[in-house]
Design a protein that fits this description.
The protein contains four helices and 24 strands. β14 and β15 form a beta hairpin. The longest helix is centred in the first third of the chain and has 61 residues. The radius of gyration is 52 Å and the shape is elongated.
């Protein structure tokens, strides 16, 4: 009996054909990759920027433009409203503390001052008159008390005399009782008069004290009013230079209106605006430097403004000597340090990094006839250098210009154009 034999799907012939096809594909891919890695291009060296790799000081920093400002500015506002009567200084003048700047006039304040002075004078006159009346009343009460004391002594004398006579049966009981009652009446009268005198004295003292307090308050108000009148003469609160003076004769200035600025002459500072990207890397005391006329001047961050609108604003002050010829409003190129300086292998910045991402670079051969791809690893960077972590050493020469059109090349043949 015949047995059906099942046909195999993967025969030896098929497996060999499939293996051959895979090998051919792999060979094609490898050859293409090899041809791409070894692709060469003739380039005129004058079209390239060739830079040397070096070892030296490396520091992260951010370049910013700073504006020179006075170390402190006092804003001058009108403490009281009024009409400009006189302008006593010119814009840009150097002032001493307390020197008058502008004289204002305000008839309402002057009239109020006159009314308050009149009220104070009236109150003081009333106090004087009241004190005189109370004093006269007290003198009358004292005279009355003196008369009562005299009558009491007479009543006592008669009482004691009549008591002796009554004991001796010389006078009647009725006569003795009269002198006795009169003596007791004078005693009670003296007590009431003294009590009334004490109460009147306390009342007089309280009344005079209240009037004196009223006079004191009125005088304090009058002193405040005088200061308000003095405020019509706007004076320099400290020594400095007046700037942005904004006033004209006859102009009406309202209370609190800005009339100028006073720049302190104790020093200068630099205000810079940074990208908010650096907000977490800026702190008070951070170092910076500016170069003027080939001289370096150190600065430090003294203030970081909390509000971030069009960028992060910081104030920097000079740590040592201030440049001699800088002026208010002048722009200065500032290098704000983001790290301490260290020694590192570095390569100058260039357009190459846009195409390579910092992963490779064209390294020039020792004879200078070609440049070949070399894998590298970059670290930190600043506006001048990249930090090289691997792939290059000091003394190497590399192409740092743009690699536009060269990104698929494995080697550049550096040949000058003879045309």
């Amino acid at each position: 009996m015949d047995v059906a034999i099942q046909k195999k799907t993967w025969t030896r012939t098929r497996i060999l054909l499939l293996a051959t096809a895979v090998v051919v594909v792999v060979v094609v891919i490898v050859s293409r990759m090899a041809s791409a890695g070894t692709a060469k291009l003739n380039v005129d060296p004058e079209r390239l920027t060739i830079s040397a790799v070096s070892r030296g000081e490396f520091q992260e920093f951010v370049p910013v433009d700073g504006a020179v400002m006075p170390i402190k500015t006092i804003y001058l506002d009108a403490p009281e409203g009024g009409t400009v009567q006189r302008i006593l200084v010119e814009d840009g003048a150097t002032l001493t503390a307390g020197q008058p700047i502008i004289q204002l006039t305000n008839t309402d304040l002057q009239l109020e001052m006159v009314n308050r002075e009149t009220a104070v004078f009236d109150l003081m006159n009333n106090l004087h008159n009241t004190r005189n009346l109370l004093q006269q009343n007290r003198i009358q009460q004292l005279n009355q008390l003196a008369d009562i004391d005299y009558q009491l002594r007479e009543a006592k004398r008669l009482y004691e005399l009549n008591r002796t006579l009554y004991d001796q049966k010389v006078i009647s009981q009725q006569e003795f009782a009269q002198t006795q009652n009169n003596y007791r009446y004078q005693q009670r009268r003296q007590q009431l008069t003294r009590q009334s005198l004490r109460q009147d004295s306390l009342s007089m003292g309280q009344q005079i004290g209240q009037m004196q307090q009223s006079v004191g308050r009125m005088q304090s108000n009058l002193a405040l009013m005088r200061r308000k009148l003095d405020d019509l003469t706007i004076k320099a609160p400290a020594a400095g230079r007046i700037t942005s003076l904004n006033a004209e004769i006859g102009e009406l200035k309202s209370r609190g209106q800005r009339i100028g600025e006073l720049d302190m002459l104790t020093g200068l500072k630099v205000r810079a605006t940074l990208d908010q990207y650096y907000i977490s890397r800026i702190f008070a005391g951070q170092k910076a430097e500016v170069t003027l006329n080939d001289k370096r001047y150190e600065l430090r961050v003294t203030k970081i403004f909390p509000q971030v609108t069009r960028g992060l604003q910081v104030d920097l002050e000079f740590s040592g000597v201030t440049p001699p010829d800088i002026r208010r409003g002048q722009s200065l190129p500032v290098r704000l340090a983001l790290s301490d300086p260290t020694q590192a292998v570095r390569v100058p910045r260039g357009g190459f990094n846009q195409k390579t991402g910092g992963n490779w670079i064209f390294k020039v051969s020792e004879d200078g006839t070609k440049a070949y791809r070399t894998d590298i690893r970059l670290g930190r960077q600043n506006p001048e250098y990249y930090e090289v972590l691997a792939g290059l050493k000091p003394g190497d020469r590399v192409v740092t210009s743009s690699y536009e059109g060269y990104e698929t090349m494995g080697e550049l043949l550096l040949k000058a154009n003879t045309d």
